[in-house]
Design brief:
The structure is a homodimer of 185-residue chains.
Chain A: H1 11-18, H2 24-37, E1 42-45, E2 50-58, E3 61-69, E4 77-81, E5 84-93, E6 98-100, H3 106-117, E7 121-128, E8 133-138, H4 139-148, E9 153-155, H5 156-162, E10 164-165, H6 176-184
Parallel strand pairs in A: 5-7
Antiparallel strand pairs in A: 1-4, 2-3, 4-5, 6-9, 7-8, 8-10
Helix pairs in contact in A: 3-4
Chain lengths: 185, 185
């Protein structure tokens, strides 16, 4: 791969380096920042909802002195891509052969169902960290699996059959819009 | 699809009682709940972002012992309506003749600009509480005003000329999708 000024970087070394210590969430946040900088898409991670139970004012500034993290009722990411609404949840697992469904709450699954029923683009991104594989599974295939199979987890062969691989890239790191383009255009 | 028990919401009877004395934010939240219940649209208020600076664990539960409210970098509301991406900010003012632009941060204006440039539906909802008038002003008309007029506030006659009245209704309270329908269809 050629970089500006003819510098050639050994890409295999580079790949090792770039993921060191970075999780899927960081990779997606950097990807979204890349999309926003290039004005390709505007997709944001929603802040974790908080229940503040004690608030004090110090120098006229509101400070939370006691607060609890609430369970999100929707997915973590949503936004705009070329006029279309995009919505997804991202999870990683250390397991080698399956993705436990306990990673996704039932109200998040209901939310994804609502999104696809209303013509939004809804999916999950799942990274099998030990296999170094990142998949995009469409909302409809996630729901199909849950409706059809009474299991606690999705086997990796379901991802191999139904999901789309998101190739590991230098920039953006997790180029999920490339997959979206191939499906929706 | 199978839903968990207790997910069905039937709130229609409580609404009139509950909204007496409520502000624009509550009205919009109830409107969004109505849209979601009817599966018309899925539009959510983003949680206020928090910077947690001290966290403790009590009985394995994460508790914030010190946290600060951060300034939102985007608008408060976004979501999906009929495949389209919708994004807006809602504000009320007690003034009679103008809406102070200090109510909307510059990065929120930039965000709205990004949204409309990428074919999303972006606007602000402004309620003049003492006049009992609620307006929907399109993002492009907001940006036009800011680009053209070097003023600290938008006079109400600009709303009268350019914005759309959102009629006060029983249910949903602030039926902004009626305006969206008239403009985008």
């Amino acid at each position: 791969m050629k970089y500006p000024k003819g510098v050639v970087i050994n890409s295999s070394q580079n790949i090792e380096y770039k993921h060191r210590g970075m999780g899927l969430e960081d990779d997606i946040n950097m990807t979204n920042q890349y999309y926003a900088d290039k004005e390709i898409a505007f997709i944001y991670k929603k802040p974790t909802p908080i229940q503040a139970t004690k608030i004090e004012y110090v120098n006229n500034r509101k400070i939370i002195k006691e607060g609890y993290f609430k369970e999100p009722s929707t997915t973590d990411y949503n936004g705009l891509y070329d006029g279309k609404y995009i919505d997804f949840e991202a999870k990683e697992t250390n397991l080698l052969t399956s993705f436990p469904l306990s990673n996704i709450h039932s109200h998040q699954i209901k939310h994804i169902n609502n999104i696809i029923n209303n013509r939004g683009i809804g999916f999950i991104i799942v990274r099998f960290t030990k296999l170094n594989k990142t998949y995009l599974l469409l909302g409809k295939d996630l729901i199909d699996y849950i409706d059809t199979c009474d299991k606690k987890s999705i086997p990796i062969r379901y991802f191999e059959e139904k999901a789309y691989i998101i190739e590991d890239k230098y920039m953006p790191r997790v180029d999920y819009l490339e997959v979206v383009n191939n499906i929706w255009r």
